[in-house]
Write a structure and sequence with these properties.
Number of helices: 6
Order of helices and strands: EEEEHHHEEHEHEEEEHEEEEEEEEEE
Number of strands: 21
Shape: globular
Strand content: 35-45%
Helix content: 10-25%
Largest sheet: 7 strands, antiparallel
Distance between the termini: 33 Å
Length: 313
């Protein structure tokens, strides 16, 4: 069975309640969360088991050389009804040296924004370390933070060292396969552990400058992942064998289908399909007139999408 060609996979979401709302893991290989396949001939297997068995056949040689048997990225939905704590993520080097773990670079994609929606991203101006420490202690830290009212369809790169939080918004998060982060402030709540002293030297105290997306179609091109946005109005056919990377397609508008090896995988808004690296021939199509999907891959230096021109039905 190990020699059978891998086909696309869909997974069962794993949701947990949080003080501020709900976190729903759509795809994760984290130990405490291990996504289970619900479609594809590997149905019933966990992502970590599939990764351990099929290695580079699942993720591609470049990703396997860097991440080994750890699936490289996670995808989750954050339904923020209140306000998350203010926290930061470490970089890969610090995470490896101090915690024997991966760091965390992430992309937030806004799928819904409430009347009170805000994202807190870094600082309005350069801030002194003492000033920030005392502002966290006396509860005035919000006055130092850069905040923005996000719009549906916007994306924001969350880089290591960037203080960040979210309020009254639903976000799709694509990130390195890590949940190593540090809580700096919790808006007066004393119920959860703070990590301010532990993470103080990791904070970037400069003024926030938003990282611009490379283009309208390419939302992020990082070493850890590339995220593209595809507006589907007609079927798109993959190029066979030109890239060696896994692909994750996440529907963020409408519904779509992915056809491969005689199977059809439907995924509606908020759902995803994982395409293994060795599954190089497939057709991605909207269900109806159009759909919007995000494409996640580990190929930051790609010059274009893996899909070609529309094909004839």
């Amino acid at each position: 069975m190990d020699n059978k060609k891998l086909s696309p996979l869909k997974f069962l979401p794993d949701a947990s309640k949080m003080p501020w709302g709900t976190v729903e893991y759509l795809l994760a290989d984290l130990g405490f969360v291990d996504s289970v396949a619900i479609e594809g001939w590997l149905k019933g297997n966990t992502l970590s088991d599939i990764m351990q068995t099929y290695l580079e056949r699942l993720v591609g040689e470049p990703a396997f050389e860097w991440y080994g048997t750890q699936f490289p990225v996670l995808v989750k939905k954050l339904q923020v009804k209140g306000r998350t704590s203010l926290h930061i993520n470490p970089d890969d080097e610090t995470a490896e040296q101090r915690y024997d773990a991966f760091g965390k670079t992430a992309l937030w994609y806004v799928t819904e924004a409430g009347a009170d929606a805000r994202l807190y991203l870094g600082f309005k101006r350069p801030v002194g370390a003492d000033e920030f420490y005392h502002a966290c202690a006396d509860g005035s830290v919000e006055d130092l933070l850069y905040s923005i009212k996000p719009r549906v369809g916007e994306s924001f790169l969350i880089t290591p060292g960037l203080v960040h939080a979210a309020k009254d918004v639903i976000l799709l998060e694509v990130a390195e396969s890590s949940e190593l982060w540090f809580r700096l402030h919790d808006w007066g709540s004393q119920e959860r552990e703070m990590h301010l002293e532990e993470a103080f030297d990791l904070i970037h105290f400069g003024q926030y400058e938003r990282t611009k997306a490379p283009s309208k179609e390419l939302l992020a091109a990082e070493v850890q992942f590339t995220v593209g946005q595809i507006h589907l109005t007609a079927p798109l056919e993959s190029h066979a064998g030109i890239e060696e990377t896994f692909l994750i397609y996440i529907c963020v508008g409408g519904a779509a289908t992915l056809k491969a090896d005689g199977e059809v995988f439907r995924f509606a808004e908020g759902e995803l399909v994982l395409v293994p690296a060795e599954c190089s021939e497939f057709v991605l199509a909207p269900e109806g007139d159009s759909a919007v999907v995000l494409e996640v891959r580990m190929d930051p230096h790609a010059s274009g999408d893996i899909v070609s021109e529309p094909v004839e039905e």
